[in-house]
Design a protein that fits this description.
- The protein has one helix and four strands; from the N terminus they run ββββα.
- It is globular and about 35 Å long.
- The chain has a four-stranded antiparallel beta sheet, with helices on one face.
- It has one helix at about 45-65, and strands at about 1-5, 10-15, 20-25, 30-35.
Length: about 60
Amino acid sequence: MILTKKEDNKIYFSWSNDIPLGYAYKEVDGYYVFIFEGRYGFWREYSLKAISDKLIELNKDRENG
């Protein structure tokens, strides 16, 4: 998974083959959350874990203080 671009306070996520997954944005509490985009009917555990890992990375500064 890659972070493809930052635009309008959103960070877009896609797979390396340019399949868009969705985007993260910062909520009013300061934490990033993820919004799925597209018409995907199911998600494998590795996909969800990759998204989770990126959110943890983005929110690391918030968790530490």
